[in-house]
Design a protein that fits this description.
Residues 7-55 form the RNA polymerase sigma-70 region domain. InterPro entries: RNA_pol_sigma70_r4, RNA_pol_sigma_r3/r4-like, WH-like_DNA-bd_sf. The protein has 65 residues and is mainly alpha-helical. It is 75% helix and 0% strand. The protein has a single domain, classed as Arc Repressor Mutant, subunit A.
């Protein structure tokens, strides 16, 4: 769990924000867009790139994805 927290801290603030709203808060993309005041397509894009960056950060720490 510590490795995951470390990897998440390496993400940009906007990536952490969208992952918090979608994954941790279990909101849909539409709900996250409303909460964050951003277009749905922006949320989709940020989630995609945030998960990609998180995967890289975890691989750098020896966690297989």
């Amino acid at each position: 769990m510590v490795v995951i927290a470390e990897a998440i801290r390496t993400l940009s603030a906007s990536h952490r924000e969208v992952l918090n709203e979608t994954v941790l808060s279990k909101r849909t993309v539409n709900e996250a867009a409303e909460v964050l005041g951003l277009p749905v397509e922006t949320i989709k894009s940020r989630v995609y790139y945030a998960l990609r960056a998180l995967r890289v950060a975890l691989e750098e720490r020896g966690v297989a994805t």
